[in-house]
């Protein structure tokens, strides 16, 4: 994996539930990159080195993913709440000497990012979110029958039902899932070394359980936190930029609101952004378009 991140150093840093695996490279203003499901920090390999030309870039495997610790969790799913994962991000960046930093997240990592921005105003100088809608919005759409429940409902089912189903063929389950979310419906967009990392990070029981707990937290604590903040009128204080693909979100409801519309109507009234030429995995399918959105965000005065 070091070949995918030339010039980056590797670190194991303490967090609340064990250790986080982290890579760090470049010099300049700090930016933390957080991956999504079912991937690891490796998903940033096509943008990290270029971004490190002007910034200090930190990449972290979220708790339960990649090479970071995968605790069993608790009955209430707090261990895998986005609030808890946000505390990991703060601790890792603090250990590097950064009290404030930019954060760009994809999928679950973006959910960690906006929860951190709402819970700890002032910590983030900028927030970039790749191909997500707010958690509360997705669940409302699922409940109303406008979005398919799909993996959100399946992974959030009580243990051990989804864990056992996935465990019968983890590689087959995750390969099919990921291929279905790309623009061309295949795995061709992924570097073979990256695919190997994703498969190795999702083929053992503790990490499969962690991923399910991540979604159980999303269906309960994360959703509740969103609803409470929405009712209180809370908004993200720092500049926000979005990038979304041509299929994963917009393909569900043609003619409906764009991701930008949804975020502006909820937590980020001043958000900017645009669609890029990709499916769900925007940083790997369209790295140039994704980098353009990130650089535009980071050039915005905080």
UniProtKB/TrEMBL annotation:
Residues 29-170 form the AB hydrolase-1 domain. SUPFAM superfamilies: alpha/beta-Hydrolases (SSF53474). It comes from the Bacteria. Pfam families: Abhydrolase_1. InterPro entries: AB_hydrolase_1 (IPR000073), AB_hydrolase_fold (IPR029058). PANTHER family: EPOXIDE HYDROLASE. This is Haloacetate dehalogenase.
């Amino acid at each position: 994996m070091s070949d995918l991140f030339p010039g980056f150093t590797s670190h194991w840093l303490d967090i609340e539930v064990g250790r986080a695996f982290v890579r760090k490279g470049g010099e300049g203003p700090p930016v933390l990159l957080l991956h999504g499901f079912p991937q690891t920090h490796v998903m940033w390999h096509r943008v990290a080195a270029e971004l490190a030309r002007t910034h200090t870039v930190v990449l972290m495997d979220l708790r339960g993913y990649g090479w970071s610790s995968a605790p069993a969790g608790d009955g209430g799913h707090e261990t895998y709440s986005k609030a808890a994962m946000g505390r990991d991000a703060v601790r890792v960046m603090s250990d590097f000497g950064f009290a404030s930093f930019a954060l760009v997240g994809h999928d679950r990592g973006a959910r960690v990012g906006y929860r951190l921005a709402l819970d700890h105003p002032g910590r983030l100088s900028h927030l970039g979110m790749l191909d997500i809608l707010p958690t509360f919005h997705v669940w409302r759409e699922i409940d109303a029958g406008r979005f398919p429940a799909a993996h959100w409902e399946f992974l959030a089912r009580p243990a051990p039902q989804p864990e056992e189903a996935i465990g019968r063929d983890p590689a087959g389950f995750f390969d099919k899932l990921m291929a279905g979310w790309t623009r061309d419906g295949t795995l061709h967009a992924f570097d073979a070394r990256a695919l190997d990392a994703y498969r190795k990070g999702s083929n053992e029981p503790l990490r499969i359980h962690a991923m399910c707990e991540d979604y159980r937290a999303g269906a309960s604590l994360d959703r509740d936190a969103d609803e409470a903040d929405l009712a209180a009128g809370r908004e993200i204080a720092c500049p926000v930029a979005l990038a979304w693909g041509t299929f994963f979100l917009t393909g569900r409801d043609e003619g409906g609101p764009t991701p930008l519309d949804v975020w502006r109507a909820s937590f980020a009234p001043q958000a900017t952004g645009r669609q890029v030429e990709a499916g769900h995995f925007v940083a790997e399918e369209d790295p140039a378009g994704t980098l353009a959105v990130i650089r535009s965000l980071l050039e915005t005065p905080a």
